[in-house]
Design a protein that fits this description.
35% of the residues lie in helices and 26% in strands. With 184 residues, it is of the alpha+beta class.
């Protein structure tokens, strides 16, 4: 089973020190009833210029992305959709995250009866200097069913677009919709 959930900042992340136990202090799920109100306040504080967030991707046995992978959420979703579009054309797609320098990639694995894909994140080692406890977070990879991944990621992207349309300063929605249209 694959789950994909988008979280948005609800507290300034500039001084965020990754700790799985306190992620609720910093992020709110799009599905939370107060998320639009919280996120609009954040957008107004940043004058509509940035909105941090994270896309959490998990399978039954692997957490592929984590709260430490936060970045500009609009750029993250645009990058994910561009990566998928590239993948659909060539069988390989990659995206470099804007702020943290992580590289996400997906690569086709042709199998029967359905194709699989290798999902990989290489994280910027500078983010982990002198943080021995985070050594195993430098790279994550997992093999997922291609059809399931596309269904779930496009569903999550549509949820984000719908959510984003309700917010103050919706500049990125046009680009997100164009990418979704091109993918489908």
């Amino acid at each position: 089973m694959l789950t994909i959930t988008t979280y948005i900042e609800q507290k300034t992340l500039d001084s965020f020190y990754f700790n799985k136990e306190n992620f609720q202090d910093y992020f709110i799920s799009l599905n939370d009833t107060s998320s639009a109100q919280v996120v609009n306040r954040r957008l107004k504080k940043h004058k509509g210029h940035k909105l941090e967030g994270v896309v959490i991707i998990k399978t039954i046995d692997t957490t592929m992305t984590d709260f430490m992978d936060w970045d500009d959420i609009d750029l993250m979703w645009i990058g994910i959709l561009q990566m998928i579009l590239e993948y659909k054309k060539t069988g390989f797609g990659e995206h470099f995250m804007a702020m943290n320098g992580h590289k996400w990639s997906i690569k086709k694995i042709i199998t029967n009866p359905e194709n699989l894909m290798l999902f990989r994140i290489k994280r910027n080692p500078l983010n982990f200097e002198s943080k021995d406890s985070h050594e195993f977070y430098k790279e994550t990879k997992n093999i997922v069913n291609e059809k399931d991944f596309f269904f779930k990621i496009l569903q999550a992207a549509n949820e984000f677009i719908f959510f984003r349309e309700k917010l103050f300063k919706i500049d990125s929605v046009g680009r997100l919709k164009a990418l979704m249209s091109e993918i489908q």
